[in-house]
Amino acid sequence: MNYHQYYPIDVVNGPGTRCTLFVSGCVHQCRGCYNQSTQRLDSGVLFTQQAEDQIIADLNDTRIKRRGLSLSGGDPLHPANVVHILKLVKRVRTECPNKDIWLWTGYTLNELSDAQREVVQYIDTLVDGKYEQDKRDLNLEWRGSSNQIIHHFIL
To answer: Origin, by domain of life (predicted)?
Structure first.
């Protein structure tokens, strides 16, 4: 898996102060996408064990009260990303049990494969659905178009 950007301190992509990872690869190619540079699977840099370790260390750093991890992109649930995202969310659940996990995907909940659904079992919030430029609404919280749905799960 590749990623484009990692923000150890982010207050834009989800509630509170968070760590945010923007992965590479998206099959949806939404018209008007604000992250077009992340759509190619081979763009960005390789997500290494060192990068994963840094996310865990940042989430556990007591000097900054972080609420959790946000996963965006590209699409964290791109079929080529799922195995790596699953490993990461399982590790966050184990080593950072008090942190929440938010994930944005262009797939709807009903479109998810079994492997993608396994990832969802470990997250707190899923923002699903393709970005639809004709349904853009700047007043929406945590999403860009009105067709996208925020699902909060009880773990």
So the answer is: Bacteria
